[in-house]
Specification:
Length: about 60
Amino acid sequence: MRGKFIKGITTGALIGAAAGMLIAPGLNRNTRKKIRTSRRFISNAAEDIFDNVRHWID
């Protein structure tokens, strides 16, 4: 149960940060392209954070 909560919080924070970047005024095409290309990095980082938190809780 705790793991799902932590995973939800982490995922929500990452999605919120990405959405904030997309909505930010003055965001140009280059920045959006960089965000799209960094999806894999963000996904891996979220997975690593979740694994670290899960091991810390157990």
